[in-house]
Specification:
Layout: H1 2-24, E1 29-30, H2 33-36, H3 39-47, H4 57-71, E2 80-83, H5 91-97, E3 101-106, H6 109-114, H7 140-146, E4 147-151, E5 164-170, H8 179-189, E6 193-206, H9 224-236, H10 251-254, E7 256-257, E8 268-271, E9 274-284
Parallel strand pairs: 2-3, 2-5, 3-4, 5-6, 7-8
Antiparallel strand pairs: 1-9, 6-9, 8-9
């Protein structure tokens, strides 16, 4: 009898610890000063060689993606990751330095040159893997061992991109032309994951309106209702996603940067009539 009670007690304690750990893990949410200034996110800033303590939403996006994947044990040898529209971001080298095998993808250079955004001129487009380890985050030999590159159109994901443990993108699917194309990308890219795989994608979040927004063009802005619609469809297909729209209340959260966007902080910014920030979608594929 005593053994059974001890067994039940151990089981209950283990469940409490497990529930507590799960409650502390990241979920889909808004970019905030509190998160970016946390010890956890700042440790990722150090690892990607960005130690200037900048309150910038792009830094938050990279830290969020890394932490979300780390919490779900994706950043280790044997894991396969797929990056969409990676440009010259540091995440490819960071994940390779953890031992993960990475397929990095981006659009063709001629398409980047024709787009309304100056990806090539601002060094945000990747022509090959040589552009992805400029910060020296990963040992060059290990980088070549773990990273490969491929041109991929995010509106037409090749059928052979399958069985990845995780995939990610940083403010990429808001540049696909329309809100609808961005939403379709989210659902289509789930086919690239193995059962139980993890997807983390950041994008533009319209804070000003839940009715009108920028619906088409070089960049589009998703509303709360758009994320809720995406989440409902994902859940219907058996996937897991939890949405948190809690806004930060720090000084950096209240400051709205304006074009040409050269201020620090830069967590929120004005685009036309709308104020926007970054939002992260964190999805776990059904197993």
């Amino acid at each position: 009898m005593r053994i059974k009670k001890c067994s039940r007690l151990f089981h209950n304690c283990s469940k409490l610890v497990s529930d507590w750990y799960l409650s502390k893990r990241l979920r889909s949410c808004v970019c905030t000063q509190e998160q970016l200034s946390s010890e956890t996110f700042q440790s990722w800033c150090f690892k990607i060689r960005d130690t200037m303590m900048r309150m910038h939403r792009k830094i938050w996006e990279w830290c969020f993606i890394a932490q979300a994947l780390y919490e779900r044990e994706m950043l280790k040898p044997g894991r396969r990751g797929l990056g969409f529209g990676v440009g010259q971001e540091p995440l490819v080298a960071l994940f390779a330095s953890c031992g993960s095998d990475i397929l990095a993808t981006d659009m063709r250079e001629e398409e980047a040159l024709k787009s309304g955004s100056d990806w090539v001129g601002t060094s945000q487009h990747a022509r090959g893997i040589e552009d992805m380890n400029k910060r020296g985050i990963c040992d060059p030999q290990e980088f070549r061992k773990h990273v490969s590159f491929r041109v991929v159109d995010m509106n037409h994901i090749p059928d052979d991109l399958r069985d990845f443990d995780f995939c990610w993108s940083s403010c990429a699917f808001d540049h696909l032309g329309t809100l609808e194309k961005g939403e379709e990308f989210i659902h289509n890219m789930m086919n690239c994951l193995r059962p139980g795989g993890v997807a983390v994608h950041t994008t533009e979040y319209n804070l000003s309106s839940n009715t009108t927004t920028v619906e088409h063009g070089d960049v589009v802005f998703f509303r709360k209702c758009d994320f809720e619609e995406i989440a409902a469809r994902l859940r219907k297909n058996g996937h897991r996603i939890d949405l948190d729209f809690t806004l930060g209340n720090g000084e950096a959260d209240r400051f709205v940067d304006k074009a040409p966007y050269r201020h620090n902080p830069h967590l929120r910014f004005q685009y036309g009539e709308y104020v926007s920030t970054s939002f992260a979608l964190l999805i776990e594929k059904s197993s």
